[in-house]
């Protein structure tokens, strides 16, 4: 496993300024955050922008094996122009990710609630769970086909438990579709819908070789606080590490910790050292 942080840790700096600070602290592997990816997409053609950005990262010895696809995307929008626009936009994100050589592109499965919001006034009946499933399968079919032959595997983030994600992945039937395990989301699922909950170790063992990416983050069960481990959260870290060892996970051990970023840059630089130590401690548990 390799230590990593998502780049929106330095949300108030340009992508380049942030990456320079990570490099200065010895962090060479990063997840490109949604916000930094959106910034790059706003600069023009994905290929040209990516080439320049990659040169910058190369010079600092930094690599971005993981990235977060559009955070508020909803791939379960009902058929219509809005859905077409959403999927076309995601294809552009995938083009950027491919040009950046990103191996794991994290995406949230679509949900009915956001779909109705995005569609404006809701004149229709809410979509059934089966409809939402079908719309997710259809969209993921389109997106995995678009990404096929390139470097990027789309990694679905939980929300749903591992069984629900695997059912979706199986229905799509694409090789370039995997799972991103968010430890904080699973802790909240356990708290809010105990019938769908599972332990971290169970989730990881069930995801097994479909597990390609991690969002390492903690909370106390009240809300998605996105804390570092051992800062007041309730995630069972020994269980997480045992599970990762059992399935032979060798990817990024990637912190997604917006709850730690509400302080000045200087303080955040110190916290990066703390994150490094915590990762070392956790990986030592794994041995
Ligand atoms: Zn996450």
What does this protein structure show overall?
The protein has 287 residues and is of the alpha/beta class. It contains eleven helices and eight strands. An eight-stranded parallel beta sheet has the order 7-6-5-4-3-2-1-8. Helix 1 runs parallel beside helix 3 (46-60), helix 4 packs parallel to helix 6 (129-147) and helix 6 packs across helix 7 (162-172). The longest helix is centred in the C-terminal third of the chain and has 22 residues, at 265-286. The model is unreliable at 114-118 (pLDDT under 50). It binds zinc ion. Zinc ion binds next to loops.
Brief overview:
It contains eleven helices and eight strands. The protein has 287 residues and is of the alpha/beta class.
List keywords for this structure.
11 helices, TIM Barrel, globular, 287 residues, 8 strands, binds zinc ion, single chain, alpha/beta, 8-stranded parallel sheet
CA gyration radius, whole angstroms: 18 Å
The main sheet orders its strands as 7-6-5-4-3-2-1-8
Compressed to H and E, one letter per element, the order equals EHEHHEHEHHEHEHHEHEH
Estimate the strand proportion.
Answer: 5-15%
**Bound molecule types:** zinc ion
Number of E strands: 8
CATH class: Alpha Beta
Number of helices: 11
- The stretches of 5 or more residues where confidence is low (pLDDT under 50) are 114-118
Structural class: alpha/beta
CATH superfamily: Divalent-metal-dependent TIM barrel enzymes
Number of domains: 1
| Approximate helicity band | 40-55%
Mean pLDDT: 93
CATH topology value: TIM Barrel
């Amino acid at each position: 496993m390799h230590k990593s942080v998502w780049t929106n840790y330095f949300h108030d700096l340009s992508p380049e300024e942030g990456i320079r600070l990570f490099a200065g602290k010895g962090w060479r592997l990063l997840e490109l955050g949604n916000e930094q990816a959106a910034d790059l997409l706003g600069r023009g053609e994905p290929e040209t922008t990516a080439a320049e950005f990659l040169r910058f990262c190369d010079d600092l010895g930094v690599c971005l094996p993981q990235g977060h696809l559009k955070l508020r995307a909803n791939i379960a929008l009902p058929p219509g122009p809005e859905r077409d626009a959403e999927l076309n936009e995601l294809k552009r994100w995938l083009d950027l990710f491919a040009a950046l050589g990103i191996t794991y592109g994290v995406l949230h499965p679509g949900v009915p609630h956001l779909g109705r919001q995005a569609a404006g006034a809701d004149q229709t009946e809410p979509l059934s769970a089966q409809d939402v499933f079908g719309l997710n399968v259809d969209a993921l079919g389109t997106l995995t086909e678009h990404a096929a032959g390139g470097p990027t595997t789309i990694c679905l983030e939980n929300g749903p438990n591992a069984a629900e994600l695997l059912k979706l992945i199986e229905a799509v039937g694409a090789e370039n579709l995997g799972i991103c395990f968010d430890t904080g989301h699973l802790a909240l699922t356990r708290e809010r819908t105990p019938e769908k909950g599972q332990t971290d170790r169970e989730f990881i063992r069930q995801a097994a070789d479909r597990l390609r990416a991690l969002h390492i983050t903690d909370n106390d069960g009240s809300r998605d606080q996105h804390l570092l481990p051992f800062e007041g959260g309730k995630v069972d870290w020994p269980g997480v590490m045992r599970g990762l060892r059992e399935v032979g996970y060798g990817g990024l051990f990637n912190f997604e910790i917006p709850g730690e970023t509400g302080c000045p840059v200087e303080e955040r630089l110190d916290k990066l050292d703390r994150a490094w130590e915590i990762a070392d401690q956790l990986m030592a548990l794994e041995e």
